[in-house]
Design a protein that fits this description.
Layout (H helix, E strand, L loop, with lengths): L4 H6 L7 E4 L3 E5 L7 E7 L14 H18 L7 E4 L3 H4 L8 E5 L9
Antiparallel strand pairs: 1-2, 2-3, 3-5, 4-5
The structure holds guanosine-5'-monophosphate and zinc ion.
Length: 115
């Protein structure tokens, strides 16, 4: 999508601190980190949110959650102590960028309930 900031990051049209890339997704450091480790994992394909996912996206989501995020958590050093994966969805979910993204947060104790 031409006016989507995360599509532009995935296409490297705007810079980011990339920590991982493959054919399906990219991971990069959040501009305003909320924890010592705060990475966003996004599909290269534009999908607006969890709500916009379809049957055709099952492999994409599975790849991100099964293959990529656990490996990233290990390589970023947060797997052993624990981490949080968040997909804010819609206005009350706190989604500010309308391109599906999974926050991977770690390096400190997380609070519950979230704000
Ligand atoms: P949301 O609020 O939609 O769940 O998360 C969007 C996240 O994207 C926020 O944590 C915000 O800091 C991050 N973000 C917004 N614009 C940029 C950007 O241009 N570059 C990077 N690296 N992160 C961004
Ligand atoms: Zn996009």
């Amino acid at each position: 999508m031409s006016d989507c900031i995360f599509c532009k990051i995935a296409a490297k049209e705007i810079p980011s601190s990339l920590v991982y890339e493959d054919d399906v997704c990219v991971a990069f450091k959040d501009l305003e980190p909320q924890a010592p480790v705060h990475v966003l994992v996004i599909p290269k394909k534009h999908v607006e949110s969890v709500l916009a996912l379809t049957e055709n996206d099952k492999a994409l989501v599975s790849h991100i959650l099964v293959d990529v995020i656990p490996k990233l958590a290990k390589s970023l050093g947060v797997a052993e102590k624990g981490f949080r994966v968040v997909a804010n969805t819609g206005a009350e979910g706190g989604q500010s960028v309308k391109h599906l993204h999974f926050h991977l947060l770690g390096g400190r104790s997380m609070q519950w309930p979230p704000g």
